[in-house]
Amino acid sequence: MKIVYCIAGTCHSGGMERVLASKANYLARHGFEVVVVTTDQRGQPPFFPMEEAIRTIDLGINYDDNNGKPFLDKLLRYPAKQARHKARLRAVLMEERPDVTVSMFNNDAGFIPDINDGSAKLLEIHFSKFKRLQYGRKGLWRLADWWRSRQDEKTVRRFDRFVVLTEEDKGYWGGLPNIEVIPNAVCGVGAAAASPESRKVVAVGRFTHQKGFERLVDAWHLLAPEFPDWTLDIIGDGEERPLLQERIDCYGLVGRVELRRPTKEIGKAYSGASIMAMTSRYEGLPMVLLEAQACGLPIVAFGCKCGPRDIVTDGSDGFIVAEGDVEGLAQRLAQLMADEPLRRRMGAKARESALRFNEDEIMKKWISTFSTLAGERRRQ
Fold first, then answer.
1. Could you tell me if 135 and 155 are in contact, meaning their C-beta atoms sit under 8 angstroms apart?
2. Cα gap 219→333, rounded to integer Å
3. At 293, is the secondary structure helix, strand, or coil?
4. pTM higher than 0.85 for the full model?
């Protein structure tokens, strides 16, 4: 069976790229033919290793050229890029003739169902339904986000299958006949073990508005006087790095809070810490929380839409804090930082919780879905 994945690029260190690499590698090792089609790769290698059997094709659309441009400039340039994207992707799919084409809800989602190459079309989303409205943008951008959210509701109905990550998010989309829940799997880091005796908290993600790391720095400012021997590592990169560093400097937290570059050996970062923190404004099913659990890290996270509540059992393997409650976040972190036996108990529970997201079990669901869709398409 041939599967084509469509994504903006595989060169970044984000959760979606990590999930794609893991799934594609698993499928390739189990006899599937896998092709990854990108639009913004620009000749860069994938951040996460991929099996040699996986073929990659870049369409050279480069949507990211529009990043940082004024609203009207983007509005004028986008239709031409979309037309070029559709034509080039159609040519690839007509040549490849896959059994299933998967959109990861990027710039192709609006037109992939229109390409009559014979493949079943599957859409998977890695954020909640409310992603666009939670960008927090103003003016024309907010109006555009509202309009695109309404378009999303129409887009998802056009696919043969629409896969979301959590039961919570499934409920937000309503009673769609084509919707299915398949969570992310955790793999590749479970051999690493957290260090409950460590005096380090770790957070991982892109330095963007979504991840809300400025709120974590604010919480650490509250914690620093009481816990002078503890440090915080925030691992990632992105456009908000200068703002985060400025905040750290302003609070006098240099040496106490470090902004670390992304790493391909994330297990080492988890194993050197004793607590995981997450301050996102919205998610899908955060890979970093699944990985942290697999390593035995208790988690303190804002209860944003969606994902944290599907992963963390409040009071058992971590704590869920009301979204945006910085003082509450600091209090829960302090509770764990002051109590090593509690960190050990919650860490042990976290390892047990991670077993729900075993890679083999999750990939059985994906393979079953692909087989069903391919069979239905052949019978049409």
1. no
2. 9
3. helix
4. no
